[in-house]
Design a protein that fits this description.
- This protein is mostly beta strands.
- It has a single domain, classed as Peptidase G1 (Jelly Rolls).
- Helices cover 0% and strands 44% of the residues.
- It has a 20-stranded mixed sheet that branches.
- It is globular.
C-alpha cells in the first residue's frame, strides 16, 4: 500500500468522531509504502518469517477483525527508522489488504506518531484528528457490510478521539492479522525503528470470535540476517500477545 505521511484527505464517506483536526506529523517528503507480507528465509521456531512483518496472522475466511494495542515509543537513530502497528484483513498470502493502525517513526532528529487507514492500492490516509502519543491505548476494527462496503474504525481510547469510514473493498478475506511492520521507503524495506518493548496487542477477534492464536500463527521479522522483531507466545485466552524489538521473545500478556 502506498502512502505519504502528508496525505490527510479522508474519503467523502468518512465520518470523523473526534473534534478539530491537527496534523500529528512533521514534514516527511519520502514516500512510505506498506507491502503485503514479504517472506524471509530463516531458521526460526516461529510459524513464519518476513522482512517486513512480525506478529500474528490467521488464515481462513474472515469478514471482520478487531484489535487493541499500546503505541510504542521509538528510540533515536542516526538514520531514519520506521514502524507501524496495525490490524487488517488480507496481505498474508495475497496482494490485497485493508487495514488501520498507527505509525511510530524516527526521522529528521525526532520521533513522529500518527493514526491512519488504508486499502491497497490507494495511498494511506493519515487521520489528523487523532493525535497519537507513545503509551496511548488504541482499539480498531474492520468489518464487512453489504454490497462490498467495509467499515474501518480506530480509536485512541486514552484520549477518546476516534474515526470511522465506510469504504468499498473487494479482497478475498483469506487472512486476519495483528502486525508490527517495517514499511518501505524509497522502494526498499525500511530499517525497523527500535520500538519500546514489550508492545502489547490484546485483545483481538476474527469474524467476531476469539481468534484462537497458536504459536504456528506467529511470525518474526528478519532484516540484514538479524531477527529484529519477535512476538511472545499467545496469552492464556489465545487472543493477544506481546511484541519485543530484537530476537528474544517476551513473556505473554498476563504471564
Amino acid at each position: 500500500m502506498r502512502k505519504t505521511l502528508r496525505v490527510f484527505a479522508a474519503a467523502a464517506a468518512a465520518v470523523v468522531l473526534s473534534g478539530a483536526a491537527t496534523a500529528p506529523l512533521a514534514v516527511n517528503a519520502s514516500a512510505i509504502v506498506h507491502h503485503p507480507r514479504v517472506s524471509a528465509a530463516a531458521r526460526t521456531q516461529a510459524g513464519w518469517a518476513s522482512s517486513n512483518w512480525s506478529g500474528y496472522a490467521k488464515t481462513g475466511s474472515f469478514a471482520s477483525v478487531t484489535g487493541a494495542w499500546v503505541v510504542p515509543g521509538v528510540a533515536s537513530s542516526r538514520k531514519a527508522t520506521y514502524s507501524s502497528q496495525w490490524v487488517g484483513i488480507d496481505g498474508f498470502n495475497n496482494s490485497s489488504l485493508i487495514q488501520t493502525g498507527t505509525e511510530a517513526d524516527y526521522y529528521n532528529g525526532s520521533a513522529h506518531y500518527a493514526a491512519w487507514w488504508e486499502i491497497l492500492p490507494a495511498a494511506e490516509t493519515v487521520i489528523p484528528s487523532i493525535t497519537v502519543s507513545p503509551g496511548d491505548n488504541m482499539s480498531a476494527s474492520i468489518s464487512k457490510g453489504s454490497h462490498g462496503s467495509w467499515t474501518i474504525t480506530i480509536t485512541d481510547t486514552t484520549t477518546g478521539k476516534g474515526f470511522m469510514t465506510s469504504q468499498s473493498y473487494s479482497g478475498p478475506g483469506t487472512s486476519a492479522e495483528w502486525i508490527e511492520e517495517a514499511p518501505s521507503v524509497g522502494g526498499h524495506v525500511a530499517t525497523l525503528a527500535t520500538y519500546s518493548s514489550p508492545d502489547t496487542f490484546d485483545p483481538g477477534t476474527a469474524s467476531g470470535v476469539n481468534p484462537g492464536l497458536t504459536a504456528a500463527d506467529g511470525g518474526v521479522m528478519i532484516q540484514r540476517n538479524r531477527q529484529v522483531s519477535t512476538p511472545s507466545a499467545p496469552d492464556g485466552d489465545a487472543d493477544g500477545f506481546n511484541m519485543a524489538y530484537g530476537s528474544k521473545a517476551p513473556a505473554a500478556p498476563g504471564s
